[in-house]
Amino acid sequence: MQLTSKNPLTSKMKKTANINTALAAATCALLGTVPVAQADEGVWEMDAALLYYGETDRVTAVEGVFSASKDFGDEHVFSGKIILDSLTGASASGAVAQPNAQTYTRPSGRGQYVVAAGETPLDDTFHDTRVQLEAQWTQPLGDDMRGSTGVHLSKEYDYLSIAVNGSLAKDFNQKNTTVSAGLSLAFDTIDPEGGRPVAFSEMVIDQGQFANEEAYQAVFDATRQEGTDDKSTVDLMIGVTQIINRRMLMQFNYGFSMSDGYHTDPFKVLSVVNDQGLTQALVHEDRPTERTRHNFYWQTKYALDSGVADISYRYATDDWDINSHTIDSRLRFNLSDNTYIQPHFRYYQQSAAEFYQPFLLEGTALPTFASADYRLGEMTAYTIGLKYGMKMPSGNEWAFRLEYYQQDPKNAGFDEPGALQQLDLYPSLKAVIAQVSYSF
Amino acid sequence: MMRNKLIKITLALICVQLVGCANLGVQPWERDLLAKDEMALDSEGNDLGLDDHIYFSKEATSGGRAFAGGGCGCN
Amino acid sequence: MRQFHLCMLFILFSFSPLSLGFAQQLPAPDFAISVDQLPDKLSDFKGKVVYLDFWASWCKPCRKSFPWMNKMQQKYGPQGLQIIAVNLDSDLALAKVFLDKVPADIPIIYDPQGNIASGYKLIGMPSSYLIDRAGLLRKSHKGFFTKKESLYEQEILILLNEKG
Fold it and tell me: What global pTM score does this model have?
């Protein structure tokens, strides 16, 4: 049972475009529940994977996963997972490019960075390591029914996430139909370096106007809120899996998610530009403290004579006005009894959040909420990849995966004043994903 | 409003599945292809988890999948 | 008074955990057998207790059931137990691969079309059926659970001890 995750965008406060969102903990919370593939009894089945994610000129991440599961008899299964990841690189801060060089203050308040003329401002302050632990227990609960429960923990320097989950699955119609329901509760605490900024407070940039270090620090501290903050999320999912015929099965899921707490990314800013398109100030963003999401998911798996076709569609909508469509397809071709290739294609499209703005116009009233985080804007993205797997005589399996991910943000209908018209405010993001896995 | 309608339709579909789809499916001994490891819904669990990680961080939507059902239907 | 005693006996007996199902004793669906050293059809096994197991190469619990069935056949064969394993693979080559890895000391019948299985209205895989010495279907099991092995053995013993 997989439950929709919490909003990953704001969970990792210190890092901007990183892939280590602690929220992944909650999302992955139910990835291992009510497992279908039956393991041999009494043997630990283990999987290890190493993933490299690299954007051109931006974020680079390396992630290692080790998972193990064991059937302790009659389908009483324990599975555990440990994930370690490390992030470096630069991510878009939300400010707009300018026809001249700009200076920004680092989120901690200590140090500055300069952005060249015409370049999208990227904050390269961060690099961090994260650890995630998961444990899940699944067992039959009487005839035709299975239950599963688990915990997730994710920890990094400034972020802690704890989640618990529980789910039930029941079979009907000679096990041709399976209905499942799951619940997940997550609690995150955030304590970013430099403290959380006050909403819409101006970024303090030391350009010699302060008498001394203390004076600067005092003004900087005035833009910061005290203490830590937190966020809690409730996820609910209901699903049906139906065997259609000897070759095909389908799944329909409905997911509901409600999160309450700090959703803002404390390191994202908006540029306040004048009617010439020139930045006058930078202000910190602010997002609503609540988010309610709905998720509709359909998947089909079809057994070919020598392979499997897998296609899924997901429609998501929420009260931030973000609507998205995702089509994900994998086609596995068995080249021989022991080897296969699997091309992968994914298409994603989302509409902008209601409070998304690429910049603020000087002189206009401040909105209640605003963010220029490109991840909340209008975009389309596609992934194209290939995986190759081979089984060794010992029964262990190697797999290699190489994928290309491109994200194209779009203008959600904002006029660009003056100098901004000559600049690319919506640069594409291009990334390569490479992974090696070993199952034993 | 559109969303509420969608929710109701989906839940109705799920209920209909239970009752109306008693005809769909196969006999227990005809699940040889469905029993294959690659036909399991969680067959590439680690890959799917890693991918979900990436897409959470770069996009505004997450989740969707579940893993119950399918397979060989044994025990 | 005598009727009352009979009633009490009846009630006591029916509550007894040692009896196996008074209700619904139908003859086990018959089928032809074309394995050497075995009779031509199931009904020819009258006088013996038959444990009929339906399995397939892709069924993982079957890997546990075979060693147990081998053990039971060896232990109770002399007392009149006959275990028969009916294979339901549509691809017989896969069944052979399974049997290479999991040896069977019991006879195997091949039913790739599922004709015999249809007669027994299988609900899940694997499924096993206990047929008494009179050829009546007494017990059915859905799935194979190592925890229940001693229970399965007890049921076999009860049927073996029944007078034909």
Answer: 0.84
* Alpha carbon of A92: minimum distance to chain C alpha carbons (Å): 51
- Please indicate, yes or no, if residue A3 is contained in any of the structural domains: no
Helix C62-76 to helix C149-161 angle (10° resolution) is 30
Q: Is B22 on the interface with C (CB under 8 A)?
A: no
Q: Of the candidates A30, A29, A31, A45, which has an alpha carbon nearest to the alpha carbon of residue A77?
A: A45
Q: Is B42 left (phi over 0), alpha (psi -120 to 50) or beta?
A: alpha
Q: Is C13 on the interface with A (CB under 8 A)?
A: no
- How close C59 comes to chain A (CA, Å)? 9
Q: Is B27 on the interface with C (CB under 8 A)?
A: yes
CA dihedral in degrees (C119, C120, C123, C128; nearest 10)? -150
Q: What is the distance between the alpha carbons of residues C134 and C49, in angstroms, rounded to a whole number?
A: 8
**Of C89, C117, C124, which has the smallest distance from its Cβ to B32's Cβ?**
C89
For A175, the closest of C63, C124, C147 (CB atoms) is C124
Nearest CA in chain B to A304: B33
> Given A40, A74, A175, which is nearest C145 (Cβ)?
A74
Cα end-to-end distance, chain C, whole Å = 31
> For A25-29, A116-120, B56-60, C42-46, which range has the lowest pLDDT when averaged over its residues?
A25-29
Q: Is residue A212 in a domain?
A: yes
In a domain, A20, yes or no: yes
> A141 with A89: CB under 8 angstroms?
no
Q: Whose CA is closest to A309, among A286, A288, A334, A326? A: A334
- Among C63, C123, C147, the residue with its CB nearest the CB of A74 is C147
CA distances from A362 to A279, A356, A422 (A): 9, 16, 19
**Residue A102: CATH number of its domain:** 2.40.160
The domain of A303 spans 10-439
Number of domains present in the structure of chain A: 1
Residue A300's SS3 state is: strand
Mean pLDDT of all residues belonging to chain A: 87
- How big is the B-C interface in CB pairs under 8 Å? 52
Cβ contact, residue pair B61, A324, below 8 Å: yes
The answer to whether residue C112 neighbours chain A at the CB level (below 8 Å) is no
**pLDDT tens-digit series, residues A14-56:** 333 333 333 333 333 333 344 444 556 788 999 999 999 999 9
Condensed to tens digits (0 to 9), the pLDDT of residues C22-78 reads 456 788 888 888 887 888 888 888 889 999 999 999 998 888 899 999 999 999 999
- Report if residue A405 sits inside a domain: yes
Q: Please indicate whether, in this complex, the C-beta atoms of A435 and B50 are within 8 angstroms of each other.
A: yes
Cβ distance C60 to A40 less than 8 Å, yes or no, reads yes
How many alpha carbons fall within 13 Å on the CB side of residue A215? 8
Q: Give every CB contact of residue C59 below 8 A, 6+ residues apart in sequence.
A: B35, B72, B74, C125, C126
What the block records as the tokens of C144 is: 């194979």
**Residue B70 near chain C (CB below 8 Å):** no
Rounded CA separation A84/A155 (Å):
10
The C-alpha atoms of residue C115 and residue C90 are separated, in whole angstroms, by 12
Contacts of C65 in chain A (CB under 8 A): none
